[in-house]
Description:
single chain; alpha/beta; 7 helices; two-stranded parallel ribbon; 9 strands; 36% helix; Spore Coat Polysaccharide Biosynthesis Protein SpsA, Chain A; seven-stranded mixed sheet
Amino acid sequence: MRLSVILPTYNEKESVLLLIREIIRVLDGKSKDYEIIIVDDNSPDGTFQEITSAFHGISCVKPFKRTDQRGLATAILFGIRHAAGDKLVIMDSDFNHPPKLIPLMMTITDFFDIVIGSRYVAGGGMETSRLRYLGSRIFNKFIQYLLSVQTRDNLSGYFCFNREIIQNVNLEKIFYGYGDFFIRFLYTMKILNRTIIEIPVIYEDRLGGLSKTRLSTELIRYTLSVLRIRLGIGM
C-alpha cells in the first residue's frame, strides 16, 4: 500500500467526520491506494462510535479504539504499527492541518525522507493568537540552538515520512508523552542523516472540540525533553 494517514483522536466527533471525508475527497483524485487509520483513546464523547457508524463498509477507513492506554504519542505509534503504507502522514484530527497538502507531501517524499508542514518557513503561519505564535516560534529557536538542528518547526504535528527510515529504530524511546515526541523523532533522524525538508503550512483554527494542550504544563515537558536529549539521557 502506498499511503497511510494516521489520525489520533480524543473527543473529536465535531471535526473528525468532516476531516475524514475531506481526506477521501483529496486522495480519491490522486490515488486509490491509501488508508486512513484512526486511533481513538476511548473518547467519552463517542468519537469512535460516530466514525464506525458514518464509515461502515468503507474499506479505506480503519478505526481502532484503545481502552488500556491514552496519549497522543503512543496513539501515533499504535497507528504506525497498524498501518500498511509505505508512506505515512501524521496529522491532527481537528482541521488544524489542511488535507490538501497530503498529495504534495507524498510526492516530495519520493526525494526526501521526511516532509514537515512548517509554520516557520516563508508562507507558513497560524490562524491563532499572535502571542501564541510568537511564543511557539521563540521556543523553536531554543530547540534549534540547544540541539543544533536546522528544522524550524520542531513541534509540528503534520508530517509525512517513508516507512523505511524507522526500520531498526527503537520507537518506544521516541513516541511517548505529548508533542515532544516530534523533537525526539527529528533529532533521531538528524543523527541518522535522514533528509528533511519543511514546506509552509498555515495552522487553521480548530473545528470544534477543545484543545488538549495545556501551555504551562507542555512548556515544562518540552523543556525537560530538550534538556534530556542534550544531555544524552534516554535517547
